[in-house]
Amino acid sequence: MERELALEIVRVTELAALASAPWMGRGDKMSADGAATAAMRAMFDTVSIKGTVVIGEGEMDEAPMLYIGEQVGSSQGPEVDVAVDPLEGTEIVAKGLNNAMSVIAVANRGNLLHAPDMYMEKLAVGPELAGKLSLTDPLEETLRKAATELRKKVADLTVMILDRTRHESMIKTLRKVGVRIKFLSDGDVAGAMAPAFPEAGIDLYVGSGGAPEGVLAAAALKCLGGELQGRLMPADANEYNRCVAMGIEDPYRILTMEDMVGTDDVIFAATGVTPGEFLGGVRYMAGQRAETHSIVMRAKTRTVRFIRSLHYLPNKALLRAEA
Ligand SMILES: O=P(O)(O)OC[C@H]1O[C@](O)(COP(=O)(O)O)[C@@H](O)[C@@H]1O
């Protein structure tokens, strides 16, 4: 993929973030998501790719736009897999909380795992711990190893986890071992990426979240030199068979970075909708301007760009795309 594509992709996440931001705190996650999806879909038409959505808003019969298998892009340019989450953290926006983003990963065709819509157990770390830990180890041991590698006391580790009742036993363990815990209300793409940003002050991300979000976070961590290990959690025989039908022969095996993102030719872009661990949210300024904060990066070069943009809203015709 040409490197210029990275800037085209960040335009798409910017527009989706701008479209969903007006819904902050209005208690309507469907409208926030619909606005982001319509804007993202419209903007994709201007991007020079022959894209196939492999992670999207759902199956063809459930989602009118950005469904799995949908073709996106101007039909000129490289054949690529596209993973999207137009609004990662719908509930966050509805409640006006932190860490909602608009997210896209693009890789050469056939290189992104087609993750089924189910939970995935995750262990995500930044560059210092990449290759040093294993999801197969008991959590206590993982924490001890992490502390040793980081030359910290266990009590000085900060671990991020989604605040969910299904994590009760993990939270008990974290408290028993004595680490600091930062709870996420939602938005575990940002959560899993956080350990790769020293300013976020997070050493590890643990716990289960969506499998599609796991692949998006793996794409980001590939660009950041971090690591995510995942294990699908099929809830019943149907979900198990679904994994197999999607080409994952042993649904319980550990998924490595390579399994989820099989190439260095991957671009990741995200724009903050509400403020988060490493990105600011959309801010409205005087003079009908809005400010966005984005990150865009390529695994090939591992260049990480933070882009602050000032948009003049009356000129954003695609913002008014129909949901
Ligand atoms: O809310 P659950 O069922 O624990 O699911 C966790 C998943 O939901 C999210 O918090 C938010 O997902 P949505 O944007 O689809 O609402 C994800 O980041 C996370 O992977």
TrEMBL record:
<keyword id="KW-0464">Manganese</keyword>
<comment type="pathway">
    <text>Carbohydrate biosynthesis.</text>
</comment>
<dbReference type="Pfam" id="PF03320">
    <property type="entry name" value="FBPase_glpX"/>
</dbReference>
<dbReference type="GO" id="GO:0005829">
    <property type="term" value="C:cytosol"/>
</dbReference>
<feature type="binding site">
    <location>
        <position position="57"/>
    </location>
    <ligand>
        <name>Mn(2+) 1</name>
    </ligand>
</feature>
<feature type="binding site">
    <location>
        <begin position="164"/>
        <end position="166"/>
    </location>
    <ligand>
        <name>substrate</name>
    </ligand>
</feature>
<dbReference type="GO" id="GO:0006071">
    <property type="term" value="P:glycerol metabolic process"/>
</dbReference>
<feature type="binding site">
    <location>
        <position position="213"/>
    </location>
    <ligand>
        <name>Mn(2+) 2</name>
    </ligand>
</feature>
<protein>
    <recommendedName>
        <fullName>Fructose-1,6-bisphosphatase</fullName>
    </recommendedName>
</protein>
<feature type="binding site">
    <location>
        <position position="210"/>
    </location>
    <ligand>
        <name>substrate</name>
    </ligand>
</feature>
<feature type="binding site">
    <location>
        <begin position="186"/>
        <end position="188"/>
    </location>
    <ligand>
        <name>substrate</name>
    </ligand>
</feature>
<dbReference type="GO" id="GO:0030388">
    <property type="term" value="P:fructose 1,6-bisphosphate metabolic process"/>
</dbReference>
<keyword id="KW-0378">Hydrolase</keyword>
<feature type="binding site">
    <location>
        <position position="85"/>
    </location>
    <ligand>
        <name>Mn(2+) 2</name>
    </ligand>
</feature>
<feature type="binding site">
    <location>
        <begin position="88"/>
        <end position="90"/>
    </location>
    <ligand>
        <name>substrate</name>
    </ligand>
</feature>
<keyword id="KW-0119">Carbohydrate metabolism</keyword>
<keyword id="KW-0479">Metal-binding</keyword>
<dbReference type="GO" id="GO:0042132">
    <property type="term" value="F:fructose 1,6-bisphosphate 1-phosphatase activity"/>
</dbReference>
<feature type="binding site">
    <location>
        <position position="119"/>
    </location>
    <ligand>
        <name>substrate</name>
    </ligand>
</feature>
<feature type="binding site">
    <location>
        <position position="88"/>
    </location>
    <ligand>
        <name>Mn(2+) 2</name>
    </ligand>
</feature>
<dbReference type="GO" id="GO:0006094">
    <property type="term" value="P:gluconeogenesis"/>
</dbReference>
<dbReference type="InterPro" id="IPR004464">
    <property type="entry name" value="FBPase_class-2/SBPase"/>
</dbReference>
<dbReference type="GO" id="GO:0046872">
    <property type="term" value="F:metal ion binding"/>
</dbReference>
<feature type="binding site">
    <location>
        <position position="33"/>
    </location>
    <ligand>
        <name>Mn(2+) 1</name>
    </ligand>
</feature>
<comment type="similarity">
    <text>Belongs to the FBPase class 2 family.</text>
</comment>
